[in-house]
Amino acid sequence: MSTRILTETEIIKRLDYMYPTWKAINKPKNQKHRPATWCNMAGVFIYDPDGWRMDKKNFLAPITKKEFIQRLSFSTTTTLDLKKYKLFSNRKNWK
């Protein structure tokens, strides 16, 4: 059995098939969503949104992925889907 290296296009096609949220996670730069949408894409649940209290930002206001990740790091959370979270939290995907 021979092994071959996949091209970047083949990898992306497989990721699109395996992880339907892949496309949503890698949307264009500065794409804004509400925190609930980002949580769904990231496979996390926010118990206490402390990251939004620092500068009194409205928790329901749309924000960028980078801002969401920064605020998420100060919030009390739990991971619901580890695969989604690993894919989402990969720093290469932060845009």
Describe the structure.
By secondary structure, the protein is an alpha+beta fold. The protein has a domain at 29-93. The chain is built from six helices and four strands, in the order H-H-E-H-E-H-E-H-E-H. It has helices spanning 8-18, 21-25, 35-42, 50-53, 65-72, 82-89, and strands spanning 32-33, 44-48, 63-64, 76-79.
Sheet/helix structural class? alpha+beta
Mean pLDDT across the residues is 78
Main β-sheet, in a few words? 2 strands, antiparallel
Shape: elongated
Overall number of strands: 4
Number of discrete helical segments: 6
* Spatial strand order of the main sheet: 1-3
Order of helices and strands: HHEHEHEHEH
Q: Termini, distance in Å?
A: 39 Å
Low-confidence region ranges: none
Helix content: 40-55%
Rg calculated over all Cα atoms: 15 Å
Kindly estimate the percentage of residues that lie in beta strands according to DSSP: 5-15%
Task: Give the arrangement of secondary structure elements.
Elements: H1 8-18, H2 21-25, E1 32-33, H3 35-42, E2 44-48, H4 50-53, E3 63-64, H5 65-72, E4 76-79, H6 82-89
Give the tags.
alpha+beta, two-stranded antiparallel ribbon, 95 residues
Summarize the structure.
This protein is α+β, with helices and mostly antiparallel strands and 95 residues long. It is built from 6 helices and 4 strands, in the order H-H-E-H-E-H-E-H-E-H. It is elongated.
